[in-house]
Predict the structure.
Amino acid sequence: MGGSDQPPAPNEGSGAQAGERGPDVFLSYSRVDQPRAQQIFDAMEAAGISVWWDGMLEGGTRFHQVTEFNLENAAAVVVLWTKTSIASHWVHDEATRGRDRSVLIPVSMDGSLPPLGFRQFQWIDMSASDGSASDPQTIKLIDAIKAKRGAAGGEIPSGPPATIVGSVPSSAPAPSRSGFQLDRRAAIIGGGAAAIGAVGLAAWGSGLWTGAGGVKRLAVMPFDVVGEAGDQSAILSGISQQIRTQLSRNPLLHVAAQTSSQALKESGKTASAICEELQVDYLLTGRVALDGQRLDVGGELIEGRADRTLLPIEEVGPVGSILTLQGQIATNVIRELTADEDNSDQSGLGGTENVAAYDAFLRGQELYDSAIDEASDRAALTKFDEAIAIDPSYAAAHTMRGRTLALIGTLYGDRSERDKGAEEGLKSAREAIRLAPEFADGHSVVGYIYANELLAMNKAREPYAKSVEFGQGDAEIQSRYAVYRSRMGDFTAAREAIGRALGLDPLNSRVFRFAGNIEYDSRQYDAAIERFRDALTMQANASMSHYLVGITQLALGDVQAAKESFEKERRFVWQKTGLSIAEQSLGNSAAAQQHFGELRDRQGDKSNYQYMQVHAQWGDEEEALGALDAAWEARDGGLIQLKNDPLLDPIRQHPRFAAMLARLGFD
């Protein structure tokens, strides 16, 4: 509804007259927030700004007609975001129209983050504002409105240039939490709660993930499978992913990751709206149909801003030619967007030219991603072995075999089985690199096994560095590298890499969780908690996210809030670890001991790292150091956090702690 979240009863009467000029501002808000909206309305009117809001509706007018006229003709659409208005479909609709018209000015009235789809704009934080004309945030709002009015052909304000919502001039001071809020992608690149660090700013300006410098931004949507796929379901469903992978190799293209593209697949949004949400310029959509052994792949490359077809896609051939068809589509897109050619060579992708091997690989990937149980993981391993048997030079299959072997050893075996799985996995990943030296995922898996499975952090440095060199367009590889650099204490490199990952995969809750991990490791707790909450906004009750919010609240000194976060955590280990610490900090020793006892009874020697955290926070130094030694003996994967974990600060200066850091290869 125009300025409100409650639909009105239809009224009769006359609407706006043709040719009338719209107001300076269309004010959108939730009716529950009307008292604060009135303050904003009064401040704008006092500044000589004409405002339309639903409080101006007179009896007898047609609500929808008047609202639509003012929404379409206002020089600026000011949206007041609160916990209430975020849930309002009416406010969302009005904000969307303001965004689409490029006249949106978002305002947070209670500190709430704007909802997904509106965070690419900076917003004005008026949560601490008194609404007076002299309040700095009120002044920023008025200046932003005047700038929009000037752009729309109205009066150009005198005085210093107004700050424009949605842009950060290079000469402008870094915004603070009390002022304009940075776009979350930019904020995560910098150090601190809301500032862009020098390295991050350089990367942002380089065009690596913003589309500057000739780089074209593109999203590949999952292709629709039309009709019955039968035994070919895995191959048909994997077409868009293979095309996406091939396109991401081209340095002139910035290709959004699969998770973010998938998130908008069923949204019903227009191509232009999807492009805006993913911050890309072009959209590749398609469908695939199977008629007997005949494959028909069609689609279109859409220019998002104009919402027009730039390149129609139509490829037909036998099922056995699917790899050729995928390569041809990728080549045509690259040629259209970059005037470049692509030879469709699969070697850099670690790929295969054998359709049977490709089918086995995709089925293995599907089983691996399902993460159901040991049986599904071992079935995935069987499929990767099958793909390798068909095509021994299939580097991607060797890589996934290595990753799966390490996973099975870790999850389902004792220490000897874990060590064996890691060594065998390392061997497979190295074979992948031998076959395809620039295959980024092969290097990434080697780095992962060294760090997470063999606990040799220094040996992971070189393979991880190569993975990020060859995998600039892969969000998952960038994320793994970012977390590794954070564990090693190199937060500049970590933020730069996670910034690339966020640019490639802006709707993936895991990437925001990793971003929060980096800020937590670096003791930037305000920034960390915002990133963890972003992750929860995207995926409610995501694994560990409530726990991560809780330990950050502990670091900020809000123990009661931390306890409440831990109580929301669904994973038993994280919930009990957090509650053991929080209850003790609140003076509830009996409750703390009960939670810790339940944790030890269920986990046995599988959670020595968590026992160390609890004892360290309880002040039991000897118990904590004993758990540290036990964690090493069990090769507990939690030890990769040892260098920077704030929960271990009480024992950080002990010589046994320093000796363990050296043993793990931290430097």
About this structure: Residues 1-19, 56-64, 155-213, 343-347 have pLDDT under 50 and may be disordered.
